[in-house]
Amino acid sequence: MHEAHPSERRERLWLVALSPTIWAAHFLLSYITAAVWCAKAPRGSFAPGSFATVQIAIVIYTVVALAAIGWTGWRGYRRHAFGTSTSRHDFDSHAGRHAFLGFAVATLSMLSALATIYVALPIVFIGSCR
């Protein structure tokens, strides 16, 4: 029984590391933005809305990161759901490897999305640099 599957040359391992890399970039951008803002802002200039610029920037970073992670997760899910085999991961076959990599990508994408939300969550509770 021959199951149609994508060719071996289309297999890419970079997709497995893409979501955690996006999370790491989001983490760095968020915390560097807040650190630079708080270090460079004059001490007497903390008006009630002055930290809003940092909050808006981190919200934008978060939306972009979640969209990219969602796209990566969707590609992984499509790879995992490819074909009709009921026990995809049980045998050493191209379809089994294809589905397992898709499962790994989808799972890492979900974890990266949660981590991205947790990185952005403090901006909801912190109102200033002090």
Description of the structure:
- There is one protein chain.
- The protein has 4 helices and no strands.
- It has one domain (14-40, 47-125).
- The chain has helices at residues 14-40, 52-80, 94-120, 122-125.
- The chain is rod-shaped, with a radius of gyration of 20 Å.
- It has 130 residues and is mainly alpha-helical.
Order of helices and strands: HHHH
Helical fraction equals: 55-70%
Distance between the termini: 66 Å
Quick one: how many beta strands?
0
Q: So how many helices?
A: 4
The gist of it:
With 130 residues, the chain is mainly alpha-helical. It has helices at residues 14-40, 52-80, 94-120, 122-125. Helix 2 runs antiparallel to helix 3.
Structural descriptors:
130 residues; mainly alpha; rod-shaped
